[in-house]
Structure formats: C-alpha cells, structure tokens
Amino acid sequence: MMSRVTDTPYRLVDSAEMLDTFCASLKGEKWLALDTEFIREKTYYPKLCLLQVGVPGNIACIDPLALPDLSPLLDILYDRNIVKVLHSCSQDMEIFACLKGEIPGPVFDTQLAAPLIGLPEQIGYANLVQEMAGVTLDKSQTRTDWSRRPLATAQLAYAADDVRYLAEIYPAFRQKLADMGRLEWLDAEFLACEQIDRYLRKPELAWQRIRGVDKLRPRPLSVLQALSAWREQVARDKNLPRNWILKDDTLSDIARMAPTTRDKLASVRNLPPKSLERYGSTILDIVKAAVDTAPQPLPEHRRRVKPTAHEDALADILQAQLRVLAARYEINSTSLGSRKDLLALVQGDEAIPLMHGWRREMAGNELLAMRDGQRLISVNNKQIIISRTE
C-alpha cells in the first residue's frame, strides 16, 4: 500500500485561455492520468461532458461544452511520446474514436494490469484506490447528469478524484510490475486497446452483440443479421440508442417468424405499433431479401456444442492445473481463465484470452500440453503435482 496522497487542488478549465495555460503546464510530461464523463442514455454516440487530466500536483477538469476548440488538449492526448493512464479505458477510448476517428495511444490500463500484481480481475476504480492508497472514494455522483451546467462543487471534486489518485497510484503500480518482471506482459493487450474496430464496429457485425444467436438455425440467423445491420445504421443516422429503434428480443422474434405480410409482422408480440407504422415496410423488405441468403458464420467462440462427460472431466483436470499455475505466480486463477474457457480449449477452440499474451505464457501453453497428453497429474502428500510425460 502506498502512503495517503495529498489533496492536490484541481482547476476547472472552461475558457480557451485557461486551456492553453493548462496544456502548457503539461510540457515535458512523459505520462498523464486521463478520465472522461459522458452521457448516452438518449443517444447512440456518447456525448462528452467533461475531461479530467492530471499528473501529481496538477489536475484539471476540462469542460468541452464550454470550449469551442479542444485542439490544444487533443494535441497532447494524441502525442505518442506521452502515455495515457486510465482505468477501464474502453468507454473512454470509444469517445475519442467517435470524436477523432483514432485512439490516443499509447495506453496503460490499470484495470487490465491489476491481476498481474495480485488484484482481482475487473477491479473497480474505487476498490483499486482503496487497495493501493487506503482511501475510500465518495460514490455519491456515480449517476449524476454530467451535461447540466453549472457543475456543482461535489461533481467536480468527484471527477477530479478519478485522476487524482490514478496519477498517484501509477508510478508505484508500474514499479511493482517492473520489480516482478511483468511490465512488458501487457504490451499486446494495451496495443489492442488502440484498435479502432473495437469501438467503431461495422453495422454488418452488430448481430454479434445479440444473445442467443448461436441457437438460431441458418434462415432466422440470416434474417437477424440483416435486421441488426439495418437497425445499427438507423441508430447511427438518427443518433438514437439502438433499442429505441427496435429491441434485441423484437429482432429475434421477427427473425424466427420471418413474416411476409404486414398482418403477420403486426403479430410479433414485442413490436410496438409506432415501430410497425414507421419501419414496417422496410422490415418486410429486409426479411424477404434475407430468408434465402446464407448467414455469416458464427464466431468460433459461439459455436460451442454440449460437452461430453469425458470433455467435462478433462476440463476439471485443466481447472486443477490452472489453480496450481495461478498459485505459483500468486495470481487469482479466474484472472487467467474461466471454466467456459477451459471447455472451449478441450473442444479445440483456442480463440480465447487464455491463449493470448501473458496468459498463454503463464498458463496457456501448459494447459495445451495437458490437453494433448504431454503432462501428468498426480497427488503427493495432499499436493497436486504436474509432471511431463516421458
């Protein structure tokens, strides 16, 4: 645990002059802590409402709604000589993807890195600060409306804390990884955070977000894929949440029924009358065109079949081996892989996180060797022993 941080004052930046002054104060920095506040309950695209940037002793809450131009700040954020430190960066990166069409790398994500120093996978920011700094954060502004002006003092203090402690934690966090020889283990995952396709997905791939697609037969799957692509494009064009156009369940019901007339479409239980009136003809045209079209193939991880008894047993063995490996590296086994991952591995699917990056180096290769009969498992004095075959 690091020592308790000081209460560095923050500044509210809401004019061009203040932005220029703050950006000048960051000259020469090698890294900075970054966070955003946004809303998207009523829109497809996230609306950026606040940017928090900080280094030790220098914190700013930047109001993009008051500034006509963010270019001085964006020049810094997109400078590849400056590491951007975030916690759970995906939603923040999506904002920049929509704002500028590219990602402000390089990125260091403390949530992705946390398992490598023995913290839980997917740890929240408040829990990270508690673990690393011994500070309990105020959570009262979690559901606040960041678009309303003026911003209250409590809102700004809450927002500033999101980078205040991140800026204090990062050096100790990084040093601990270096001392453990694990600093470079995350390079591939951090680089993946910069891939624009992660955040600006093509409409024709929107169906992959919908639950239950792996249970559909080819014909309804083809219809669902076409309807999903159409809905995604409409949501983008109108800047509305996709479920405001049609809900996932409604798309799935239409895909299964494949209605050919307006009356049959109207019988879909979850289809609102207003949606029928607005989109009915278009939906029928899409269904008609899709029913005789071959669907896109399911991703490998969605093609699972029910495991046999032997596959279940082998997954149990791999899970025991995974726990042994995790204990060796003083890491939680769930940070390496889930039972679902192990069943996928048993069934020959290697397109899982366990088979990539540091997880593969730490455990994946050994699990593959066990699966393929190159390792033996035994018990000695109540200890599980993993050994190589002759």
Can you tell me about this structure?
The chain is an alpha/beta fold and 390 residues long. It folds into three domains: 10-198, Nucleotidyltransferase, domain 5; 203-290, DNA polymerase, domain 1; 305-388, DNA polymerase, domain 1. 45% of the residues lie in helices and 12% in strands. The protein is built from 15 helices and eight strands. Strands 1-4-3-2-5-6 form a six-stranded mixed sheet, sandwiched between helices. Strands 7-8 form a two-stranded antiparallel ribbon. α5 (125-133) crosses α6 (153-179) and α13 crosses α15 (357-371). The longest helix has 27 residues, at 153-179. The chain is flat, with a radius of gyration of 25 Å. The model is unreliable at 1-5 (pLDDT under 50).
Task: Describe the SSE topology.
Elements: E1 10-13, H1 16-25, E2 31-39, E3 47-55, E4 58-62, H2 71-77, E5 83-86, H3 90-100, E6 107-109, H4 110-113, H5 125-133, H6 153-179, H7 187-192, H8 218-238, H9 242-245, H10 248-257, H11 262-266, H12 273-290, H13 309-328, H14 339-346, H15 357-371, E7 375-380, E8 383-388
Parallel strand pairs: 1-4, 2-5, 5-6
Antiparallel strand pairs: 2-3, 3-4, 7-8
Helix pairs in contact: 5-6, 8-10, 8-12, 13-14, 13-15
